[in-house]
Amino acid sequence: MSSRALLLVNRHARQGQKSLSEAINYLKTLGFSVIEESIEDPKHLSEVIVQYQQQVDLVIIGGGDGTLNAAVDALVDTQLPLGILPLGTANDLARTLGIPNSLPEACKIIAYGDLRRIDLGWVNGKHFFNVASLGLSVKITQRLTKEVKRRWGIFAYAATALQVIWEARPFSAEIVLNSKSLRVKTVQIAVGNGRYYGGGMAVAPDATIDDQRLDLYSLEIKHWWQIILLLPAMRQGRHIHWRGVRALQGQEIEVYTRKPRPINTDGEITTYTPAHFRVIPKAIAVLVPPEETNIVNGQ
Prior knowledge:
lipid biosynthesis; 6-stranded antiparallel sheet; transferase; alpha+beta; Rossmann fold; kinase activity; lipid metabolism; nucleotide-binding
């Protein structure tokens, strides 16, 4: 891999500040010439990437899924390859791509790994890596503060989910796929591009980030406690086989609701319904472990 790297670390990510100097040392040892830019607000990531696009050969981002989501539009525009240092709480994109949370190992993958082109999801002009959703997950996002994530790590997702599940109330929505319209009453609609989201839950049993399709599921359950029963199955994506869960696949999906509802993309609220989703095949290049099974099987 070429050696001029723009390193962007979200200092507010769970492991961001303490890992910055360590990452720089590892990368320099591996032969990289590193330009490091301090990022206090992930909203500025895209403009920094565009600013340096002619001076570097790749972008290395240290943070979680929200940090990566903040940079994705600039990665599409510049077509610079992406290296990932998983420094966030859930690190679902890294999990999907087989990138370990170990900082030395993640740096080695950036130095010696394979470049793979992966798909991106797109909703209302915003790209996403993992999942875009509305309903229950939005309430979880709104409750899942930085302080909670920093203190409890991956367990923060489960704890916050349990707090909001009992408040879940169904809403009406219209799903349009392949010119067919479905009217549903649901507590959550999720549209997945990758495999993992929400701290390690799988969108579908066979979902991958390069299958050139979107996987939608709708939780059409009547009682809040049914969600609790579903949670273990959601770790492997087996929930799509349960009664009360509607599963659909396609390259383009539309979702309409009576009033605008917020949509969560990779853990950040970025747009509202009505929503037009589509998959963008092979949109960007990412450095992944050399074993092809890591990306193909989502392990």
